[in-house]
Amino acid sequence: MLEAAIILQAILHEYIEAAVIAGLWVFDAALGFFQEGRAPATLAALKSELALNASVRRDATWKTVPATELVPGDSGEACARWGGSRRKVG
């Protein structure tokens, strides 16, 4: 839509308004490109802070293990830890 506004302003000989719209359009595109490039790093940082652990009872003792190490027969609860706080999952 901004392209149409730029063309319309140019047709109406409103060159300053067309230039302002074009400048904002380029700024928006550059900002989106920059943020899109940083998104994978942000996602990786969030994933590294989130750890899914489980408290399981094995051999009559309670242990905290990563949820990926759960095996059939384990009983207990899973907790998501993010930034030091624990939240019960499920």
Commentary on this structure:
With 90 residues, the chain is α+β, with helices and mostly antiparallel strands. The chain has two domains: 2-46; 49-89. Helix content is 50%, strand content 30%. It is rod-shaped, with a radius of gyration of 26 Å.
What is the fold's blueprint, element by element?
Layout: H1 2-11, H2 15-49, E1 50-58, E2 61-66, E3 76-82, E4 85-89
Antiparallel strand pairs: 1-2, 1-3, 3-4
Helix pairs in contact: 1-2
Q: Name the quaternary structure.
A: single chain
Q: Give a short account of the largest sheet.
A: 4 strands, antiparallel
Number of helices in the DSSP assignment: 2
Strand content: 25-35%
Q: Return the domain count.
A: 2
Classify the helix fraction into a percent range: 40-55%
Overall 3D geometry? rod-shaped
Write a concise keyword list for the protein shown above.
2 domains; 50% helix; alpha+beta; single chain
Short structural description:
This protein has helices at 2-11, 15-49, and strands at residues 50-58, 61-66, 76-82, 85-89.
